[in-house]
Amino acid sequence: MMSYSETVSPVGFFDSGVGGLTVLSAFLEQAGSFPFHYLADTAHCPYGDRPLDEVKEYALAATDFLVDQGCETVVMACNISSSIALERAQQRHPDITISGLVNENLGRVVEQQVSNDKVGVLATLGTVKSKRYTEVLNEFNLEVIQQACSPLVPLVEAGQLEGREVEDTLKPLLFPLLEADVDAVVLGCTHYPFLLKPLKKLLPDDVSVIDPGKALAGYLAPRLSTNGCRQTKNFWATGSKESLQELLPYFSFDVPEEIGSVSLPLTSPTT
Asked: Tens of pLDDT along 7-58?
C-alpha cells in the first residue's frame, strides 16, 4: 500500500479540458486530501474528433509532463487516452503507476448494474472508433450499444450544463440507446458527468448511469493512504484557462491565483 506524507509525490491527472475534474473530484471524495497536479490540454481540446494517433501523442506528452513534475501515480482522466495510449504510457514509464478508465474493474461494476445484458455507452467519436469499451464489456458477455456524442464536450467547456439547448442536444443521442432497451448507460467521456442532471431527467428511472471515473476512484483511491498528508493543488493548462476558472467552483475548488501555463513537447507516439 502506498503511504503518503507531507513530502510524498503528488498524483497526476490529465484530460483534454475540464472533464478530468470529475475524476479528480471522485478521488478526493474517496481518499480525502492528497497532493496533485491537474493538467488540462485545452490547446488541443476536444480530443474526440481528432485522429487517434494524434491523440495518443498528446496523451503521452501529458503523461511525460506529469512524471516530470514528480508524480509517481498518473491517472488518465480521459476515456480516449485510456483507450488508446495507456499501454504505451505504461511501457514508457515502467516505474510509474499509470491507470486508465476503461478496464476490467469497470466491467465488473457495469456487470453488477445490468439485468438484460445490454449497456449503452455515450462517448466521443474517437473513443467509439477505438472499440475499447466494446472489447472490455464483451468480456463480461454484455451487448454494447455505442453512441458518438461530438457536440457534448464543447457544451461543457462553454459552461452549458443544463437547459433547453442541452436537453435538445441530448435527446437524439439517447434515442438509439433507449430503442435498444439498455438498462444502463456508461458515461464514456469524463466531461459527461457535468451533464448528469439533464441526463437523469431524460432517462427512465430504471436506467442506471455509470461514471467510470467514480468506478476507478472506488478501486484505486482506497489504495492511497493519505493520513497526515498536506494537500497541494497545482493546475496547469496548455491553452485557454477560462473553462478551468469557470468550472473549478462546480466541485468547490477555490480558483487558484495562478493556473500554470505549459507547452507540451510532442514526440512520435511510437517512441
From this structure: 467 899 999 999 999 999 999 998 877 899 999 999 999 999 999 999 999 9
User: CATH number of the domain that 21 lies in?
Assistant: 3.40.50.1860
| Among 45, 71, 78, 229, the one annotated catalytic | 78
Taking the alpha carbons at both ends of the chain, their separation in whole angstroms is 31
Does the active-site annotation cover 71? no
Query: Is there a domain that residue 257 lies in?
Result: yes
Domain count of the fold of the chain: 2
C-alpha cell at 97: 503507476
Residue 122's domain spans which residues? 104-212
Q: What is the pTM of this model?
A: 0.91
Examine the domain organization and report whether 108 and 203 are in the same domain: yes
Residue 254 included in any domain: yes
- 99-121 pLDDT, tens per residue? 999 999 999 999 999 999 999 99
Residue range 47-66, pLDDT digits in tens: 999 999 999 999 999 999 99
Is the residue at 268 inside a domain?
no
**DSSP output for 105-169:** HHHHHHHHT-SSSEEEEEE-HHHHHHTHHHHHHHTTT-EEEEEE-TTHHHHHHTT--SSHHHHHH
The one catalytic residue among 71, 149, 189, 229: 189
For cell 461530438, what's the residue? 150
pLDDT digits (tens, 9 = 90+) for 62-104: 999 999 999 999 999 999 999 999 999 999 999 999 999 999 9
Q: What is the DSSP letter of 98?
A: E
- Does 203 lie in the same domain as 109? yes
- Is 189 among the catalytic positions? yes
Based on the fold, state whether residues 97 and 225 are members of the same structural domain. yes
